[in-house]
Design goal:
788 residues, mainly beta, Nuclear Transport Factor 2, Chain: A, Beta-galactosidase, Chain A, domain 5, ten-stranded mixed β-sheet, 7 helices, copper, metal-binding, oxidoreductase, Amine oxidase
Length: 788
């Protein structure tokens, strides 16, 4: 048996052990305590051994394999064959135009659940392989970006190419009309051209009013940058964006000016792109001529320039070092070897009864499949779907900004963690390999695994003078960090030894600050710097929880805590009085399951149960979907910028029947077309299918309303910007109790189990403290029971 991970504070100070109280002398007088080998205090000599990776062999080869480079090359060659008549241009060409047809992206099409479960169960020998192909069709009569699937693979005479319309259920099927499509190299060049021409023509004005000028991204005179607002379309037929102007610096997010410029960027012909309006000091100018005329006439009231002092954004240490801060901070160390096993070839993992496969997705990062606890199925899929951010403010950029981070590729923006800081020392690191464009890409060490202690006992109790017990609380954490523009997101997936699963997301990085205006009165955020204020915004993370509790026949149950007035014969003197009871209700159909929110005071419990499988006490075995910190959803239900594209983020939970035709709640390009998304989430519920004892998917949201504060500079504090959710066993164990009595990392004292000196000797199940760990006087196990 191996002890769990410890959180260690270095520079251990041994305190005086001769303490006494007026009522009870501590019993440190037994000379033979240290003679007990199990409890002998270790001297801490020698370094703890470096943990070695423990291997396991997956029961089946993983069905989640990205396309290899030879497969990608073969698909590209096949797509360029004259027989298909796609008339494709080279996407790497410097002269590539928006009006061309070209391949934007190829990746493995995530296999259907039915195919995967057939394979894992042994009823199928393999999982069919298809590619998802994204093609910019700029020369089409109605230009757009179209999704296809190609297969079966490998390429052969039976391979076909068909529109991927079986799960893109939006009004245009698998197509996004061009103006709401990709912001790739051809479009970027077109936008840069019109922006450079326009801003150069008014550079003297912008220098005077803001201290900023733009002559093009490569011009040495340029001292500013712009961002392209998302979404920049409504349904793909329009193309309008607002550009906020900020000082060019290492961190421009927090150096905004009071200048905003809007362009029409609709269509594939860049000669038709044009200026729409200029806004300065919240005054609208409909042309550069109007702007210049007002400036020349002295009719423009100047506002302060963005500060040139960016020291407030610098994270280099300043100030006097705090007392004892020169010592190494406490850290998580695995001092007795890893307690989880890894099959790198198949991305398969086991830990303390848990087992699961993972895959890595360009759009959303790490995903989990066939999640089992003690051999029994809990989840088929656990995966992030998107991370939305909706802003608000009294200017055209903030008021119209709604980011869908899936558009930028959450997985593609994963970063390599810093050892010992982002992930504990001795963590296991996994590469992230996925298809990007027409290439196979790998991000080194993009995911870390480590075991940690929750920080409190998992169970404990103390019966004075009789017995006491405590159980350690370790869990395996799988962590991914992605930097998406100004924000860094930390996603933790935790697998606890009691059968619980924890989901935690934290945000740090730089806030997207607003230009400070005193007349705003703090309605969109407080002043947090010389020329900046915080900006009201909401983060919402949507997760897919495809439960298969024992099997695929599950039910979603809502248990309300109801307060009612009653009379009871044993309280005749009370008359009618108020008390509580449960009201248990099956969510019977998708119409009811579409929007489930959290009631006031937490007076509802949501569980997924399998009514065909009961525990020893006749209760349906299940899991609770338990809100943690900040289970928020979008506060604005009818914002035009998330009108239909944000439906998955407009409730705490939603429950639908699982279908291979409904694999995701959103899509990468949906965020740019809020009125015509590729996936319209609420359409999943339109047929109002029954949910009782069916294959269910819970779509859960967590996030945070970011009430920006001065403490968000230079970087947002992840301790506060934190949201969580727990999936916890609910009558799950067959024997009808909790799942920790088989854990060896637990201690039990019984008053009858004493040594020759009459001291109670605890049962530690043979798990000893490693010799390399120095212990202090107060770390003794002997004598604790007597200190009552």
């Amino acid at each position: 048996m191996r002890p769990g991970p410890l959180i260690i504070a270095f520079e251990l100070i041994l305190l005086d052990t001769g303490r006494a109280s007026s009522t009870n002398q501590r019993r440190w007088t037994y000379p033979d305590w240290k003679a007990d080998t199990v409890f002998k205090r270790q001297d801490g000599t020698g370094a703890c051994p470096l943990p070695q990776e423990m291997s396991v062999t997956a029961p089946k080869a993983t069905p989640f394999v990205p396309l290899s480079q030879p497969e990608l090359d073969s698909i590209v060659k096949w797509l360029n064959s004259s027989s298909l008549g796609l008339n494709l241009s080279d996407p790497s060409s410097s002269t590539l135009a928006m009006s061309d047809n070209y391949i934007n992206h190829i990746e493995i099409l995530k296999p259907n659940k039915t195919d995967v479960t057939d394979y894992l169960s042994g009823s199928a020998s393999s999982v069919p392989r298809f590619a998802r192909v994204v093609i910019n069709e700029g020369s089409a009569k109605v230009p757009g970006v179209v999704q296809y699937y190609v297969g079966p693979l490998p390429i052969s005479d039976s391979t076909t190419m068909r529109p991927l319309d079986y799960f893109y259920n939006g009004p245009n099927g698998p197509k996004v009309l061009y103006s709401g499509g990709l912001y790739d190299a051809p479009r970027q060049r077109a936008v840069e051209a019109i922006v450079t021409t326009t801003m150069t023509s008014i550079a003297d004005i912008t220098l005077d009013l803001t201290g900023l000028a733009y002559y093009g991204s490569t011009d040495n005179r340029t001292n500013s940058v712009y961002f392209v607002q998302n979404p920049y379309s409504t349904d793909g037929t329009t193309g309008v964006t607002w550009l906020p102007w900020r000082r060019r610096a290492q961190n421009p997010w927090d150096q905004p000016s009071d200048l905003y410029v809007s362009f029409d960027i609709a269509g594939t012909d860049p000669s038709l792109y044009h200026l729409r309006m200029i806004v300065y000091n919240l005054v609208v100018y409909n042309s550069t001529d109007a702007f210049r005329a007002a400036w020349s006439a002295g009719e423009i009231t100047k506002t302060p320039n963005p500060t040139t002092n960016d020291a407030f954004l610098n994270k280099a240490r300043t100030g006097t070092v705090r007392d004892l801060e020169d010592r190494f901070a406490p850290t998580v160390l695995t001092i007795d070897g890893n307690r989880y096993r890894v099959d790198r070839a198949n991305n398969y993992f086991t830990y303390m009864g848990w087992s699961f496969y993972t895959r890595f997705d360009k759009d959303t990062g790490i995903q989990f499949y066939d999640v089992r606890f003690k051999g029994e199925s809990v989840l088929y899929e656990l995966s992030l779907q998107d991370a939305l951010v909706q802003y608000a403010g009294n200017n055209p950029f903030q008021a119209g900004t709604a980011y869908s981070d899936r558009f930028y590729g959450i997985g593609a923006q994963a970063v390599q963690p810093i050892p010992g800081y982002d992930c504990p020392y001795h963590a296991t690191y996994l590469n992230a390999t996925f298809n990007d464009g027409a290439s196979l890409r790998t991000i080194q060490n993009a995911v870390c695994l480590f075991e940690t202690d929750i920080g409190t006992p998992l169970t404990r109790h103390d019966v004075y003078g009789n017995w006491k017990q405590s159980t350690k609380s370790p869990k395996l954490v799988v962590r991914m960090i992605a930097t998406l523009g100004n924000y860094d997101y930390i996603w933790d997936y935790g697998f606890v030894v009691d059968g619980s699963i924890t989901l935690d997301t934290r945000a740090s990085g730089y806030v997207q600050a607003n230009y400070y205006r005193a007349d705003d009165g703090g309605r969109w955020g407080p002043r947090i710097g010389e020329t900046i204020s915080g900006t009201m915004h909401t983060h919402v993370m949507n997760f897919k929880l495809d439960f298969d509790l024992v099997d695929t026949r599950n039910t979603f149950v809502k248990t309300d805590l109801v307060v009612e007035n009653v009379t009871q014969p044993w309280y005749p003197e009370r008359g009618v009085f108020e008390t509580m009871r449960y009201a248990v209700h099956d969510v019977a159909s998708e119409a009811e399951g579409r929007q489930l929110n959290l009631p006031p005071n937490g007076q509802s419990m949501y569980t997924v149960v399998n009514k065909d499988h009961l525990n020893a006490w006749g209760q349906p075995r299940g899991y609770r979907v338990q809100p943690g910190l900040s289970n928020v959803y979008l506060p604005s239900q009818n914002s035009p910028f998330l009108l239909r594209s944000g439906q998955h983020a407009k409730q705490a939970f939603a429950v639908s029947r699982q279908h291979d035709t409904e694999p995701a709640s959103t899509a990468a390009l949906s965020g740019n077309v809020p009125e015509a998304p590729l996936v319209e989430f609420w359409n999943f519920f339109a047929d109002d299918e029954a949910l009782v004892q069916e294959d269910l998917v819970v779509w859960a949201n967590l996030g945070m309303h970011h009430y920006v504060r001065a403490e968000d500079l230079p970087n947002t504090l992840a301790a506060e910007a934190h949201a969580s959710l727990m999936l916890a066993p609910q009558n799950w164990a067959m024997r009808g109790g909790e799942n920790t009595r088989d854990l060896a990392n637990a201690v039990l004292y019984n008053y009858t189990d004493t040594n020759a000196e009459g001291v109670v000797v605890p049962e530690t199940n043979g798990v000893d403290v490693p010799g390399c760990l120095a212990l202090g006087a107060d770390d003794e196990l002997l004598g604790v029971f007597e200190e009552q």
